[in-house]
Specification:
Strand content: 15-25%
CATH class: Alpha Beta
Distance between the termini: 34 Å
Order of helices and strands: HHEHEHEHEEEHEH
Structural class: alpha/beta
Radius of gyration: 16 Å
Shape: globular
Number of domains: 1
Length: about 180
């Protein structure tokens, strides 16, 4: 039988304690993503996996009210930063010893399942129409892709992020590399 809201809440830490819990050393960089649905989905993913933060890069026109609505109000539990320059954000993460992966099908990309995610990780996810920017690709350690078995060449950006994030978290849980 499905758990109700009160039963689910009993399995969670208190709101006061939650803000002080450690986060998984994972950062999502949203490279000019424009859809409030996609941004909200990423915020919900960040909350579900308790990752370090999301950095929203570029010109975003989503309002705070729309952000809360699209994220189902979990935005208050997720660290969200804004950046006008993705290269600066990536350089900062590189200096902090993060492995940086752009999720983009390109000449140098490899299957995301062939990567070992043992260090702190940053994942760059690109614009719905144009993909990951050239600056982000140049400043990444590796480009990764999700093999597509069907006739389509791509999938929704937040779905791609969920697939890669789930694999990264799976590996970190197995290897006790979450902190």
């Amino acid at each position: 039988m499905q758990l109700n809201k009160c039963e689910l809440r009993q399995t969670k830490p208190s709101r006061e304690n939650y803000v002080n819990l450690p986060r998984a050393p994972i950062v999502l960089l949203l490279d000019n993503i424009q859809s409030s649905f996609n941004i909200g989905s990423f915020i919900r993913l960040a909350d579900a996996f308790a990752i370090e933060k999301i950095i929203i890069c570029g010109d975003v026109t989503i309002t705070p009210k729309k952000l809360s609505k699209s994220s189902r109000n979990v935005d208050k539990w997720v660290c969200i930063e804004y950046s006008n320059n993705i290269s600066n954000s990536l350089n900062d993460l590189r200096e902090r010893d993060y492995d940086i992966f752009s999720i983009e099908l390109c000449d140098e990309s490899i299957d995301f399942r062939s990567v070992t995610y043992n260090k702190p990780c940053a994942f760059v996810l690109g614009n719905e129409r144009n993909g990951v920017s050239a600056d982000a690709l140049i400043n990444s350690h590796q480009q990764i892709h999700i093999p597509m078995s069907g006739m389509g060449n791509s999938m929704n950006v937040s779905t791609a992020g969920a697939i890669v994030l789930a694999e990264c978290m799976r590996q970190k849980l197995i290897n006790n590399a979450l902190v």
